Amino acid sequence: MQERRSEVRLLCADMVQVKWQDRLGRPRQASALLEDISRSGACLQFEIPVPLGTELRIACGNEMLEGEVRYCAYREIGYFVGVQFSEHSKWSRQQFEPQHLLDLERLMAEARKRSR
């Protein structure tokens, strides 16, 4: 499968609160596990499915990110939901850093530097 992302996703783990409206316009809210994140999107793990095209608001610390569900797939332990952030809502490490964040590119660069 060919990678379609233009940005590297950083692996992470942090609990976030997510709000949206269901297809009938009723407000919904759930906790989700933030699995990975980039400037333009994220993957969240839910206990329930979230329909494609749903607009979400994700509370990350004191910040709010907005986006749209691009995929929702069940994988053994929950529903993995891919979110593309809206044009005016981009993530940066300065605005919110997940509790556990792993930047594999930075880690590899530091390892190469040490091995010289």
Strand and helix layout:
Elements: E1 10-21, E2 27-37, E3 41-46, E4 55-60, E5 63-74, E6 79-85, E7 100-102, H1 104-115
Antiparallel strand pairs: 1-2, 1-4, 1-7, 2-3, 3-6, 4-5, 5-6
Strand content: over 45%
Radius of gyration: 15 Å
- Element order: H for helix, E for strand: EEEEEEEH
Assembly status: single chain
Total number of helical segments? 1
**What are the segments in which pLDDT stays under 50 over at least 5 consecutive residues?**
none
Q: What portion of residues is helical?
A: 10-25%
Mean pLDDT over all positions: 89
- How far apart lie the N and C ends? 34 Å
Biggest sheet, spatial arrangement of strands: 1-2-3-6-5-4
Biggest pleated sheet: 6 strands, antiparallel, barrel
Structural class: mainly beta
Which outline best applies? elongated
Could you tell me the number of beta strands? 7
